[in-house]
Amino acid sequence: MKNVHIDTDQGEINGSIDPKFERVLDVFVDNFVSKNEVGASCALTIEGNLVAELWGGKRSVNGDSWDRDMVCTVFSATKGAMAICAHILADRGQLDLDTPISKYWPEFGCKGKESATVKMALDHTLGVPHVRGALKEGAFYDYDYMVERVADEEAFWEPGTRGGYHAITMAWTVGEIIHRASGVRLGDFFQKQVAEPLGLDFWIGAPSSVDSRISPMIAAEPDEAWMNTRFVQTALAGGETPTHLFLRDFPLMDPNKTECHRAEIGSAGGITNGLGLALMYEPLAMGGKTSSHSLLSPDAVQNMSRVSAASHEDATLLIPTRFSQGFMKTIDNRAREDAVNSSLIISDAAFGHVGAGGSVGFADPDCAMSFGYAMNRMGTGILMNERGQNLIDAVYESLSYRGDKSGAWSK
User: Fold this and answer.
1) 268 has which bridge partners?
2) 93-119 per-position pLDDT tens digit
3) What is the CA radius of gyration of the chain?
4) What Cα–Cα distance (Å) separates residue 236 from each residue in 66, 89, 157, 243, 272?
5) DSSP state of 117
6) Which of 102, 107, 116, 172 is the most exposed place for a label (fewest CB within 10 A)?
7) Which pLDDT score is estimated for 63?
8) Within the chain, what is the greatest distance between any pair of CA atoms?
9) CA distances (Å), 392 to each of 29, 262, 346, 359, in order?
10) Which residues of 195-211 are buried (b: 16+ CB within 10 A; e: fewer)?
11) How far is the C-alpha of 53 from the C-alpha of 81, rounded, in Å?
12) Burial 289-323 (b: 16+ CB within 10 A, else e)
């Protein structure tokens, strides 16, 4: 491994890297030099070995340095962590993914949701992408309140008949299913069953001891291309559509408030860094286990990687999407004129999750690879912007993959 220490006008970049992945370092540095990165970290494992860990920049514009132990909110990249918890329970026989949710959570089985299964909650076909009607102040920080609101919500469509991204309500649908099936709340379950065994700096509900390490998030600056997308224009049009409610709900979770850091928001509130994301996905790239810990069976990992729901027009995001049970698959919308930064280009075998602004973590079992990237300056768009996608591209290029013209990186 080569030690890294590079001074840039945007701050120091540090870490270590296998020379085979020098291209990843080049892109990481270029993100700061030419793409306005402020603070960020990324990490890469191959066959259970950490071959790249990089961090650098600043925790805020003109602020202190982004150190190795810096963490930040990774928004929907948290969904991967929550999905892993559900699959652990399924692997142990404590949760049946094909069973109606009402078996575990009777109050949920009403208002068109009677037939909804656990699998539908994981693959975004459940039909409860948002909650209609006004929400109290601080609603997303009150777990019990949101569980009651979601359980009482009428389905937007018959569960299982279409796909629509559940950006925020997944915290309380999948989160409460995990709670009912295990008897343990999601944040504690994840910490005891995933984060601690794998040695992750990753929390769904961070303790006060982490406060000094949390970098503030810097909101994206909307540009003309983003404002003219079909998603934004539909969201601004109003009405109780999933697209408009996404726009309404996004500001209700402030990642720079302590109460948000403490909250158990399994769909969007996770706090970690690039290393935490990469190490979380490491066992999923290795058949379910690391050299020191068995997390899931090979059959469970195969099930997690398989496409469960695909749509030509996601009911919320208004773009084609592809999901396995709790994870995103490769999604190629680069040719669309009505969408920007709305793709995630990985291999067909890979699965993981993007977070708002461009964070990402994923596993690729075909090449025994896991990757994580987290940053504090958010980008526009629904999925990856060029900073994170360029890092992913550099990884696949370093592994001698042929190209991504098919919509997925191919050998």
Assistant:
1) none
2) 999 999 999 999 999 999 999 999 999
3) 20
4) 36, 40, 22, 9, 32
5) B
6) 107
7) 87
8) 58
9) 14, 31, 7, 11
10) beebebbbbbbbeeeee
11) 20
12) bbeeeebbbeebbebbbeebbebeebbbbbbbbbb
Residue 236 three-state SS:
helix
Nearest CA among 351, 333, 354 for reference residue 230: 333
Cα distances from 146 to residues 126, 158, 394, in angstroms, run 16, 21, 41
pLDDT value at 62 more than 90: no
The pLDDT tens digits for 348-405 are 999 999 999 999 999 999 999 999 999 999 999 999 999 999 999 999 999 999 999 9
Q: What per-residue confidence (pLDDT) applies to 371?
A: 99
Q: Are 116 and 160 in contact (CB under 8 A)?
A: yes
Residue 47: pLDDT over 90? yes
Using N-to-C axis directions, what is the helix angle for 274-285 and 78-91, rounded to 10°?
30
The one-letter code for the residue type at 390 is N
Would the pTM of this model clear 0.90, i.e. be above it? yes
* CA terminus-to-terminus distance, the chain: 25
Q: What is the pLDDT of residue 336?
A: 95
Residue 246 contacts residue 232 (beta carbons within 8 Å): no
Dihedral of CA atoms 195, 204, 246, 334 in degrees, nearest 10, equals -20
